[in-house]
Amino acid sequence: MSSHPVHGLPFLPGNTYRDPTKSVFHRSQTLKYRNGYSRPVLPTVGIGREPITVNQLSQAELDELANKRPTLTYGQAKPAPPSTFIPVHVAFDKKVLKFDAYFQETVPISQDEHYRVRRVCVYYYLEDDSMSVVEPPVENSGIPQGTFIKRQRHPKNDNGDPYHWKDLKVGINVTFYGRTFSIISCDQCTKDFLESEGIEVNPTEAIPTDLYTELRKEPHRTYTTPSDFDKLKQFLTMDRKVLRFFSLWDDSESMFGEARPVIIHYYLVDDTVEVREVHERNDGRDPFPVLMKRQRLPKSVKDLKDTFPKCVLEMSDQEVTEWYSPRDFKVGSHIIILGRKFFLYD
Q1: Which parts of the chain are coiled coil (predicted)?
Q2: What dotted CATH number matches 88-216?
């Protein structure tokens, strides 16, 4: 029987006396802040500053006891609920494996080809292990295309065992109703599914070509990008602006040839060139200074032999790849105009 902590009397009805010396009756504070964090503090005295004689455990010791026997705190563990049954047609609904394949079709009555390569797509439906073969349409082929073999379960041997997705691999041949198909590749989803099942996918193979398909290919076309140069702006800004170059026509390599002074005019308004010969008094030459009339000068021509004449009529942009421009006329250099060599000295 416990006794009164002050008077030593038994703690019985009628023996309880109020201690007149007690003046503090608040409870001890068990929560404090330290460095900005709230922390629990175990009290050492009770109400009225009476010392607590009960053996108290620290929070770390309480946590250790709770971890050793979690069943005392949480009770017995409940068994895991059984997994929900999912049928195959629901688990693999709308999941299809796609393989790219081809087969060779013999062409008996043709001088241009002996066989033709036809590309197909093999679809494997995981929900019911059925397969279908579809041929992508090719324009102007003249062959009935589309669904080659309708969706069904294909037998793989004489016993009637159907094909399984484990039987389809890249780089192997499969036979459907007497026709052999060569599998060359698969899409990324099919590759991920096979690798998740532990199957190593072979690298993609190239599809062979046939002579008829190569002949039907459209020849490569060459396109010329139209120029965005504004001719009206050139006419308004460059009209009556002419570049004049003093040069020498070196004709010393020919019989009785000599160096003749000429003047080259370059008209900026339409990029034309004129060559005029400078005559002196009593030089014995014809009094016609125009050596070459005003025209555009071709710098490089498409696929012409060396024996092709330099001076031709009606040369257009289709035969010329590049025309002479002002940047080609440099003082102190030579320039070739219609097979003649001119030296620009001023």
Answers
A1: none
A2: 2.30.29.170
